[in-house]
Amino acid sequence: MALYSEKVMDHFRNPRNVGIIEDADGVGEVGNAKCGDIMKIYLKIENDIIKDVKFETFGCGSAIASSSMATELIKGRSINDAMTLTNKAVAEALDGLPPVKMHCSVLAEEAIKMALKDYYDKNGIAYDCSVFPSCDDCSHCHH
Amino acid sequence: MRVYADNAATTKMSAAAISAMLPYMDKIYANPSSLHSLGQEAKEALENARERVAKVLGCEAREIIFTSGGSEADNQAIISAARIGERKGRKHIVSTAFEHHAVLHTLDKLKKEGFEITLLDVGEKGIVTPQQVSDAIREDTALVTVMYANNEIGTIQPVEEIGKVCRERGVLFHTDAVQAAGHLHIDVKKQNIDMLSLSGHKFHGPKGVGVLYAKKGIALTNIIEGGAQEKGKRAGTENIPAIMGMTAALEEAVKNIDTNAEKVSAMRDRLIDGLSRIPHSILNGDRENRLPNNVNFCFEGIEGEAMLLLLDDMGVCASSGSACTSGSLDPSHVLLAIGRPHEIAHGSLRLSLCEENTEEEIEYIINAVTQVIFRLRSMSPVWRDLTEGRQQFVIR
Predict the structure, then answer these.
(1) Nearest Cα to Cα of residue B300 among B202, B377, B217, B214
(2) Is A16 helix (H, G, I), strand (E, B) or coil?
(3) What distance in Å separates the CA atoms of residue B110 and residue B218, rounded to the nearest whole number?
């Protein structure tokens, strides 16, 4: 049996939306190089719609695939949709991830949330802090 | 193109090993413990193999125990030495920080029983000195166990000199020679080795079989209880086909040891030179004192598992010490032991060659790795931070 599903391998081999957005409206970075994965998401937002999204990822195959899939799932959607994207939805869209790799989908969810938080901060939009991840909550890494 | 460059993980079986095994599967298949003539024929083959292995290692046949592999041999050697020491009130063991887990986890187990374990630093070069061993030995030291060559970075330890120190101080010396056997010369007498472990599948023999050499007079403790096989020290019907295959493979490897080393180390050097040209890359382990077939690099700004998957797509079979491939959250303990920071250790690549690799394959690997590193760096936020000056390079 292969380590990853065909979908994971497809998104890993041909990642969608790789790159940066120079004049991004929101940027979110999560993870830690010490733990072996960092994801950075760039959002271009117009009228509450995610017009464009790009990512850069330092990490394993499933981290790259999770970022790619997550960007596909929020592109063209409303910021509310993006806020409610769960790691499970990312993993399911990839036809599943091995249990030890589920944290990659968590990182993708959190990277998007952090990019939205950055957007809210830049635009003075009020939000509930508790819906955003903080590094201390991350169960993946305890260095 | 498919290039197999993961020979430190395991090797392809040689034709000599396979043909040595076959008769013991369907012709001389009897149990060597059986009294009938077919059983006695198997017994004869077993004892013949034992003598041949002993000859290769420079010891006596009665000092050879066949095991299920290197891990079992390591476990048995260390546990045996611990029990011998314990009986004399010695409960201290000296080893190194970058041993194989078969050694380290056995030492952990002993630690829980109250043994004190000193793990020596291996420095950036990945080599311990006899002086370090000498300084670490105490009145109550039961055992020194230092690997002959490291399985990840291939560095060769001065076992003969370490063995000499141990002899002078009256301490048992075990070496895990799993990566060395068939690749580096072994002479247990000359090298002052009391116990040695090796594994059949690292030199084109079969998997699931290994050897424990224990100098006569060392009382072994059973790891597996049962019948009286292996002089009562290792129960279970002997795996005759595997033992015959391993013996044939070992003899062949040792016969060609110098010509293979010359050929393989030339390819290794070419590979090291080629990969050194990738910016912000660094060779792990001493360049000179390393196995003829081992190449291990760290590349800054990328992660090892992604590298292996892309290399696999290009037909290159390799290994990495990244957390994602180690099955834990931490990267390789070997790379951490030589002082590589976590973020660098995640980007490691081990390529281990054999005499069947070709110069053409080496060029192909250099090309493939260069492309893969470029591709992963182009999507790495860490690489961007490094190249745009927001972070300092660790590897200059």
Answers:
(1) B377
(2) coil
(3) 19
Catalytic residue, chosen from A60, A104, A129, A141, is A104
The pTM of the full predicted model, rounded to 2 decimals, is: 0.94
Q: Where are the domains of chain A?
A: 6-131
In this prediction the ipTM stands at 0.92
Q: Which residues pair with B282 in a beta bridge?
A: B298
Q: Which CATH architecture does the domain made up of A6-131 adopt? A: Alpha-Beta Complex (3.90)
Is the distance from CB of B150 to CB of B103 less than 8 angstroms? no
Interface of B to A at Cβ within 8 Å reads: 301-306, 309-310, 313, 322-324, 327, 329, 331, 341-343, 346, 378-384
pLDDT, tens digit, 9 for 90 and up, residues B315-368:
999 999 887 766 667 899 999 999 999 999 999 999 999 999 999 999 999 999
Q: Do A57 and B305 make contact, defined as CB atoms within 8 angstroms?
A: no
Number of DSSP helices (H) and strands (E) in chain A, helices first:
5, 3
Cβ separation A64–B306 shorter than 8 A: yes
- CB-nearest partner of A60 from B301, B324, B327: B324
Which of B166, B298, B324, B354 is labelled catalytic? Answer: B324
d(Cα B152, Cα A56) in Å, to the nearest integer?
30
Record the tokens describing residue B235, joined without a space.
Answer: 């129960």
Nearest partner of B146 among B181, B113, B122, B170, judged by Cα: B122
Calculate ∠ Cα B72-B78-B80, nearest 5°: 95
